[in-house]
Amino acid sequence: MPEVIFNGPAGRLEGRYQPSKEKSAPIALILHPHPQFGGTMNNQIVYQLFYMFQKRGFTTLRFNFRGIGRSQGEFDHGAGELSDAASALDWVQSLHPDSKTCWVAGYSFGSWIGMQLLMRRPEIEGFMSIAPQPNTYDFSFLAPCPSSGLIINGEADKVAPEKDVNGLVEKLKTQKGILITHRTVPGANHFFNGQVESLMSECEDYLDRRLNGELVPEPAAKRIR
């Protein structure tokens, strides 16, 4: 997979990029865990997500947030990292103008950034939020959440306790016109130690069902613009 360097808001960003053979294939952007706690684009879960989308014909990009690896800049507590993610998506879209839709998948800190990106980019039609931390980060911006997606967490996650994730899911499930799918990996901690295979099999199952046209929300009442 080609190593790429592209311009971000705080300097160059380093990524790994795999274009699809289809010009109009959807894009998948994968976002890594917290930069100050060892999170990089080479995290095993991030790599597996990248490979999962690539195998299904997506044009796929993962990258290092500012200050990680060969990406320039310094950690910016989420605001700058959100700008990095938006720049990354802009960069892929500039190479694939025929691609009309995309997905965003984030793990831990990356899931918080991914959900914020979702609010700003109407072309994002699906998301995967892995081990989100509503006890640490504010998710109240999801009002309303614009796309259907998967939220998945570990049953024994002490970093993001299950009750907090359940609270976020319940709040999002009250929204019309989208479908939130929630899965819990039995016995898994925040890092899915020894459980990455179970995690990925849930993610693959969800993605395949969405690509097959399943998991469609009930139509929402049309809003007057």
TrEMBL record:
It holds the Pfam family Abhydrolase_1. Residues 34-135 form the AB hydrolase-1 domain. It comes from the Bacteria. Gene3D superfamilies: alpha/beta hydrolase. InterPro entries: AB_hydrolase_1, AB_hydrolase_fold. This is AB hydrolase-1 domain-containing protein. It comes from Rhizobium mesoamericanum STM3625.
